[in-house]
Amino acid sequence: MRYIIFTDLDGTLIDHDTYSYEAARPALSLLKQKDIPLIFCTSKTRAEIEVYVKELDCRHPFISENGGGIFIPEEYFDIDLKFDHKLGNYNVIELGTSYSKLKDTLIEISKSSGIEIINFGNMTTEEVSEDTGLDLHSAGLAKIREYDEVFRIIDETEDKASRIMELIGSAGYNHTRGGRYWHIIGNNDKGKAVRILSDIYKQQFTDVTTIGLGDSMNDLPMLGSVDIPVLVQKPGSLHDPSITDPKIKHVKGIGPIGWNNAISEIIEKGSEI
Ligand SMILES: O=C(O)[C@@H](COP(=O)(O)O)O[C@H]1O[C@H](CO)[C@@H](O)[C@H](O)[C@H]1O
Predict the structure, then answer these.
(1) Is the Cβ atom of 182 under 6 angstroms away from ligand 1?
(2) ipTM of the predicted structure?
(3) Over the chain, what is the mean pLDDT?
(4) Most exposed among 59, 214, 232, 250, judged by the fewest C-beta atoms under 10 Å?
(5) What domains appear along the chain, each with residue ranges and CATH number?
(6) Could you say which of 8, 189, 219, 240 is catalytic?
(7) Euclidean distance between CA atoms 64 and 75, whole angstroms
(8) Is 149 in the pocket of ligand 1 (CB under 6 A)?
(9) Nearest Cα to 150, choosing from 17, 48, 50, 252?
(10) Edge-to-edge strand list for the sheet holding 149-153
(11) How much is the CA Rg of the chain, to the nearest whole Å?
(12) Is a pLDDT exceeding 80 seen at residue 273?
């Protein structure tokens, strides 16, 4: 049996505030040593993910922008792979809607409803950096978006949020929420992408057990699509209280500390969390 690991980044493998994965180093080394595929499945852009691919020397497929794109390195699988197009050295399976359509729709919704928003497309790199705590270079990479627009509602109230989400639905699009932001997306989510990629791994290796790790609502579709779903704690030491599915295992530890605990329990000790 082979394990395949799908992981969220912000607030899960990397710390919500510092964006560091240092606390997860022991478990990351364990996966390398055992040659277990680690698949990033995040709201982050391809350009942002490629930084982690290089830093962690993690040459596996990855899933960008809430399931918008699945990027599979050429010749990674031996099986005959169906994909939508080639981009550099990737075969790309595209599930998302084009960024410009999503961004234009969001702006239109904000104007017609009179509800003010701020979105990455209308923010400078400096503003994204200040709002996220990302350094300037990383903030620039977060703005190179393909399948998902990121936004905040100014002076957010429940009423304003539900009106915006209703209008996004009427326009034929979907929404989700990460640790910091709302997102407008097309007919994709992390779960759909995880199911497609898991099926490909199952064709290649037959006996596969999938593990998924996340912290927030936008991880729920991913957690619902794996064999072993794991929720790490958020800053303040709580698990996201809106995630109540009893099948999801709650691991102790905030972000990468919880990530490290979960991987070492399951992979090293072979035990339940
Ligand atoms: O919505 C959010 O809070 C995060 C969630 O990212 P994950 O899916 O948790 O990796 O994503 C946005 O903000 C990040 C910076 O905090 C950016 O790096 C991402 O590109 C953006 O989508």
Answers:
(1) no
(2) 0.98
(3) 96
(4) 59
(5) 2-96+191-268 (3.40.50.1000), 99-185 (3.30.980.20)
(6) 8
(7) 20
(8) no
(9) 48
(10) 117-119, 149-153, 182-185, 174-177
(11) 18
(12) no
